[in-house]
Amino acid sequence: MGSTGAGKEVATEILPYIRVYKDGSVERLAESPIVPPLAEDPETGVSSKDIIISEKPPISARIYLPKQVEHHQKVPLLVYFHGGGFCFESAFSFVETKYMNNLAYHAKVVIISIEYRLAPEHPLPIAYEDCWVALQWAVSHSGDYGVHNKEPWLSTCADFDRVYVAGDSAGANLAHNILMRAGSEALNGGVRITGAFLTHPYFWGSKPVGSETKNMEEREKHLTYTIWNLVYPDAPGGIDNPIVNPVVPEGPSLAGLGCSRLVVSVAEKDVLRDRGILYYNAVKESGWEGEIELIQVEDEDHAFQILVHESENAKKLIKRLASFLV
Question: Fewer CB in 10 Å around end: N or C, the chain?
Answer without folding.
Answer: N
